[in-house]
Amino acid sequence: MSFLVRNARFAARPVLASRIMPSRAFTSSGVRSLKEDDRHTPDLAEQNERHKQDQLQKQKEGKGHWKPELASNSEEAVAADRQAGDHSIDELQKKTAKHAEEKHKHGTSQDPGL
């Protein structure tokens, strides 16, 4: 009985508005895109589709490889960290220049990566 007497006085008290926490009725999230830097590229969808089809074709032929064009910036950074080796700066610069020339010639990556 004492339980009812104790709780009855709290039940009769008006609820204060300051105790009610407002909840968020509307939330939004950022746009999910592959590359964060490519947002303003006019033909981004066409480029992504071309790289995707190229990757699918190479996988069917058994020549599939990781494509940095289809990765986010963070995925590309992780892949670069994992592939880091004991190469000299000159060697890496030559390799990068060669890769850029090949990529520019063909319009998409043609080799299994750097």
Automatic annotation (TrEMBL):
Ranges of compositional bias, category Basic and acidic residues: 33-68, 83-104
Region (Disordered): 21-114
Name the UniProt record assigns to this protein: Mitochondrial carrier protein pet8
Taxonomic path: Eukaryota, Fungi, Dikarya, Ascomycota, Pezizomycotina
